[in-house]
Amino acid sequence: MKRFFAAAACAAFLTGLTAGCGPAPAAEEASVEFYAMDTAMTVTAYGPGAEAAAEQAQSAVNRLESLLSRTREGSDISAVNSGAGAPVPVSGETAGLLNAAWSFSHATGGAFDVTIAPVADAWGFTQAQQHVPAQDALDALLDAVDYQSVLVEGGSAASAKVTLGAGQAIDLGGIAKGYASDQVAAVLAENNVGSAMAYLGGNVYVRGAKPDGTLWRIGVQDPQNAGGFAGILSLTDSFAITSGGYQRYFEQDGKPYHHIIDPKTGYPASSGLISVTVVAAGGEAAAGIPGSGTMCDAFSTALYVLGEEAAIDFWRAGAYAFEMVLVTGDGRVLVSEGLSDSFEQEADSGYTYETIGRAAP
Ligand code: AMP
Ligand code: MG
Question: How far apart are the CA of 277 and the centre of ligand 2, in A?
C-alpha cells in the first residue's frame, strides 16, 4: 500500500511587477493504493477532506471484503456457504446486496447468477490449479445453479437470514467490486469531496471533474492488446465497469478458458463478445445501499454472457439507465448512442467503430 498527501507545489504566477506564490491553491491530493478483493485498487481524492476520504474509502473496501469474500473465514458469504441448507444470519448489508443480485439475475434471464460458485470451483478459479472439468461433473453441478432457490429473509433489516438450496454455494465476485465502488462513492460524498477517481480493478468511479476542470479520461482496454486501448471515455460523476475474458483465464492444450461462466452451459461464456463496459451516472450514493456501481458490475458480467444481440436488445428495452461499449471478437467496437459524445476512438487500434441507436434498424 502506498499513501501520499501533497499540497500542489506553488505555481501561482502573479502578472505585473511581482512574481511568486500567492496563497497556496487548495489542490490537496490524497491517494491510497492497496490490494483487496483479488485486485489492485487506487482511490485518489482532491481538495479539502481528501486525505480522510481516501483513508475511509480504503477501510470501507477492506470491511466489505471481510463481509463478502467467499474464501475468508468469518465472512457472511462463507457462513452462508457452510450453512448446509439451514437459515444463516447475515448483516442487513449482505442481504440487501443479495436482493439486488436477485433482481439483476431476474432482469437478465439468469445470465448473472451468484449460484454459479460450485461450477466456478470445478474450473478451479478460486484455487491455484485450474483445469477443464469433465462434462458429467459440470452437468451435476449445473443442477444446483439457480438464483431463484436462494431465500433471503428480512430484507435489509438486522434480522436478515439467507438459506441456500441443496448443493448451492454463492460467489459475489461478479458484483462485489461494483458494490464497493458504490460505497467508495458514498464515502467521498459524505466527506464532500468534489473531485476524485477510484479504480477498483476494472471498476472505475469518477466524481466531479479533474482538479484542472477537465473531464476524467478512462481508457477502455483493448482485450487483444495488453496496454492498448479500444477507446477512451471522458466522464464525470459516473461508474464505468468492464468485464472481459482477458482479465482472468488459464490455458489448457493451447486453448484459453476464462472466468465468466455461462450458467446455461457451465463453460466460459463464448458469446462473441470479448469485453463489455457498462457506464451509468453516479447518482446519489448512499452508505450500505447498492447503487449504480452494483448495477454496472452485474450487467457487465451478464451482457458478456448474453452476447451482442441480446445485450443490444436489453439496452434498447430501456428498463435500466445505462450505456455500454461492447468489443467483439471479430474486431468491432459498438458504442451505445448515449456515449457518442463521451467516446473517443483509438486511431491505430485496428477496430471498426459503430454506434448503436435506440431504435432497432
Ligand atoms: P466480473 O469480472 O464482474 O465480470 O465477474 C467475474 C466473476 O464473477 C468471476 O470471477 C466469478 O467469481 C463470478 N462469475 C462468473 N460467472 C458469473 C455469472 N454468470 N454470474 C455471476 N457471477 C459470475
Ligand atoms: Mg461484474
Answer: 10
The CA distance from 243 to 299, in Å, is 9
Q: Using alpha carbons, select from 356, 347, 352, 328 the residue that is nearest to residue 232.
A: 347
- What confidence tens digit (pLDDT) does each residue in 53-97 have? 999 999 999 999 999 999 999 999 999 999 988 999 999 999 999
CB 276 within 8 A of CB 324: yes
Dihedral sign (CA 60, 178, 323, 275): positive
Cβ of 231 closer than 6 Å to ligand 1, yes or no, is: no
φ/ψ (deg, to 5) at 33: -120, 130
Q: pLDDT tens digit string along 148-157?
A: 999 999 876 7
| Residue of 148, 182, 260 to test ligand 1 pocket, by largest number of atoms within 8 Å of CB | 260
**Cβ-contact 352, 333 below 8 angstroms:** yes
Query: What is the end-to-end Cα distance of the chain in Å, rounded?
Result: 50
Amino acid of residue 280: A
Burial degree of 152 (CB within 10 A; 0-12, 13-18, 19+): buried
- Judged by phi (left if over 0) then psi (alpha if -120 to 50, else beta), residue 349 lies in alpha
| Cell, residue 318 | 430501456
Closest CA to 342 of 218, 241, 182: 218
Ligand 2 center to residue 120 CA distance, Å? 14
Please tell me whether the overall predicted TM-score, pTM, comes out greater than 0.85 for this model: yes
